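Q: A reviewer asked whether we had any structural model of the full assembly, not just the individual parts. We don't, so I'm hoping you can provide one. Inputs are below.
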Amino acid sequence: MDERAVRVARLVAAEPTRAGDRRGVAGTLRRLCSAAERELSASGTGVSVVAGSEMRGVAAVSGPAYEALEELQFSLGEGPCLEAIARREPVLVPDLLDGAMRRWPGYAPALYDKGVRAVFAFPLQIGVARLGALDVFRDEAGSLTSAEFRDALSFADVAVTTLLDGQADAVPGAAADGLDDEVVGQRAELFQAQGMVAVQLTVPVADALARLRAYAYAEDRPLGDVARDVVARRISFDSGRS
Amino acid sequence: MVEFLQMLTRRVADLFDTGEAGLLLADHRDRLTFMAASDESARLMELFQLQYGDGPCLDAFRTARPVTNVNLAAATEKWPQFAPRAAQAGFESVHAFPLRLRKEVIGAMGVFGSTTELDETDAHIVQSLADVAVIGLLQERAIRRGEALTGQLQRALNSRIVIEQAKGIVAQASSVTPDAAFALIRDFARRNNRRLSEVADTIVTGLPDLPDLVGG
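A: Here is a predicted structure for the entire assembly that you could use as a starting point for your response.
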């Protein structure tokens, strides 16, 4: 680790825990998000983790308000986090009104409505492997300074180290301590709904997710709410037979 | 990685008019193994040391200190196995440098020459190249380890996701709650002595043909 990363790792270690913090890796990442929020003059930050090729989930956010914004990228299948992961390089949007609305027609307006004016996403990666991304949200337009940019890269490095060290300590076959609950358990209903809709429509689960997304978009409702209704059988995609 | 180390041994050999270089690395049980050499004769010199258990690289590895300017003709007592064989191969002097990582020694680099005399500056340069080898090795190992761990993490997360999806599939197909569906899947896995994640995977990828969970 270079000097900057060592400093960032110390900041994360010194960050106080909060009531409701999860154990293990998810808890460390939550504190990393808070430290990053403060150091990078952000209004919020989030870390998302890739599971498998298409599946992604939120691992931690600096504050509850950003959980939904971070999650929304996965609901919509677009956003700076996904782009940073796909392109393997930081995605920097210092002014949300400058081109972002066309780039992410679903996500950018939602960010703007919540008061976000600038967003920066940093990939979490090692070698050829992709772990996820660190998202930095600001309520004022403007670029990161070069020092902030380098700090953000260090926060991403420390997030990678946290994830890998946690995984190194995990029992074989299990995810790093606390991470599967945070990334998967929290949105169990979405995956269950995916399975149910797959049966209702006789399509693969990946297609079922697309149908759920399309429904949520058309009805202008959060994907999580739609999933909950599917699991509770208040919504069925199989109107002909149910 | 081996290519990088081979390049490095060639660079070290090039520093000398008549000299070859070889490199040994410790495995996770701290046993030295051959990694790279600038030519076949240097490879043989490294292999001799491993085979017979004496020689300059082994000393450098054990003591964490460089071994420089040892005249092979006068080293038979020091290395009864290695010295005569190296002399026979036409070498006259040897040097060896530990590959150090802080307090740990992770390998050694040998330099085999004819009349080569290393002064302090030469020794310093060769030790620096040995240090470069260590940095390169560590980066490579860290990356490989990181990639492997990332794969493990993603498989573990993915298997939890697939279990939730399978719960939804069975819940819909059998008109039960997701919790009841989970019990069905789990019991099926137990009865058939299969892993839960494996059964869940079969359910999700096997759509639309669902296995009969109640029978079986």
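A: Points you may want to mention in the reply: The mean pLDDT of chain B is 88. The domain at 150-205 of chain B is CATH 1.10.10.10 (Arc Repressor Mutant, subunit A).
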